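Ribosome biogenesis regulatory protein
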Amino acid sequence: MTSNDLVKSILQRDVDEQDRILKSTEVTKPCPVDVDLGNLLVWDPNVVDQQAYKENREEYIKNTMRDNMQLFVNALWQVPIERHDNTVVAKLPDAKTVVPREKPVPKPKPLTKWQKFAQSKGIVKRNKSKFVWDETKQEWGRRYGYKKANDDTKPWLIEVPGSADPNEDQFAKRLAAKKERVAKNEFQRLKNIARANKINVRNDGAIINKKSSTNDVKKALATAKYSDASMGQFSEQAAPDEARQTRGFSKKRKFESNLGSLKSEKNKQLKLFEQMNSSTAK
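Structure:
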């Protein structure tokens, strides 16, 4: 091999290497691929070349992925492009492919009574800072929660009002009022949850079931009369129709008198003793 042939082979090898590294941005395939920019998805319907795949599987997969990625980038640069803070942003279209979800789409939470009122009045919630300045401590503290700033719930001295009892514990009174406010807020929260779930609740918290019929109420009343420790012996007698509606409680239990005869009690105990000593007793 002459020197010219050696130089030509080296140059040709460099050209082939450059062509392999820097391929053209124009990619042609027998069947056009389906590009779904909304899901950043490329669907390639072309048939796999079995011979090329068996000869060099890694190289074949790499070339196929490179061509599909090039087609995806070409389609991406055709959508409207905006620039925000020296960053190029592409406005993607709506997705064409329906991707299945593992779980259903979460339902929006129902609005509370206050949220509905705020929407009707146009009240906008403003995000407040978590920290406020404490004038007493001369430092920043939390607005709410433990060790909050400007906390007047634990003062070391409380002035007794003129109309109050001078012997009344003002600290215990303030603590009881705080517990009452907390309980009231919790009760109101539960009522909001019940209202959002369309459950009728009275002011005392009892659930109102409009589907309950008169027979259901009578049945519940008759059952309650037979649910005490004496099985209804000392309760008000239920009406005959109410007693028939109960399950297993229509027959009243009978108790023997505590002032019975000694002879009958002796016979009963002997009979019980014989049953215990009997070999056929269960």
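Confidence is low (pLDDT under 50) at residues 245-249.
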